[in-house]
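Quick one, tokens below:
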């Protein structure tokens, strides 16, 4: 199991306990994604999924995920344990979305390192399969949203926001990729 460390240090906004609570949600989400009842007969793929998530998701600063938790606290009048956990789950889905983008970006840019580690696609036994792995991370977001938020009035809004952010980010990445390609062609 990977230990989640680091993160932003905002003592007046989020306590060390809050940061720890956020970190403690990740192993549960990892289990949610690798112990899906209809996929249990695929233990090798589940181990691979765990490896992908452990390597790519929890090693950044987690500003986006922690900001999600913080924003929730400022926007709700219903601050209870269940909703605090949901804000953490949502925060981790935001971190997973970022990981998906970074995994794909590293492949496109032929990057070698990310966050002080080898880029996922350069790890010994990964290679071009990293593209599918990035898509698996993106798909995992929707598994978690469905599990934790399906019964909430705002479920469809969460899906819309995730899809909107994904589309706009991919659109921007296309511009970045094509601009880089155009510069190479001019040389």
């Amino acid at each position: 199991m990977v230990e989640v460390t680091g993160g932003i240090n905002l003592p007046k906004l989020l306590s060390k306990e809050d940061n720890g609570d956020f970190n403690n949600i990740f192993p549960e989400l990892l289990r949610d994604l690798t112990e899906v009842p209809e996929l249990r007969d695929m233990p090798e793929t589940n181990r691979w999924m765990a490896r992908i998530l452990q390597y790519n998701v929890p090693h950044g600063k987690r500003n986006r995920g922690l900001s999600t938790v913080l924003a929730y606290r400022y926007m709700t009048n219903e601050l209870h344990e269940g909703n605090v956990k949901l804000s953490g789950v949502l925060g981790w889905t935001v971190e997973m979305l970022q990981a998906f983008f970074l995994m794909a970006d590293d492949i496109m840019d032929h990057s070698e390192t990310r966050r002080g580690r080898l880029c996922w696609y350069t790890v010994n036994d990964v290679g071009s399969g990293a593209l599918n792995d990035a898509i698996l991370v993106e798909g995992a977001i929707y598994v978690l949203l469905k599990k934790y938020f399906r019964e909430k009035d705002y479920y469809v809004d969460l899906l819309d926001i995730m899809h909107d952010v994904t589309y706009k980010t991919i659109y921007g990445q296309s511009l970045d990729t094509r601009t880089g390609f155009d510069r190479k062609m001019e040389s």
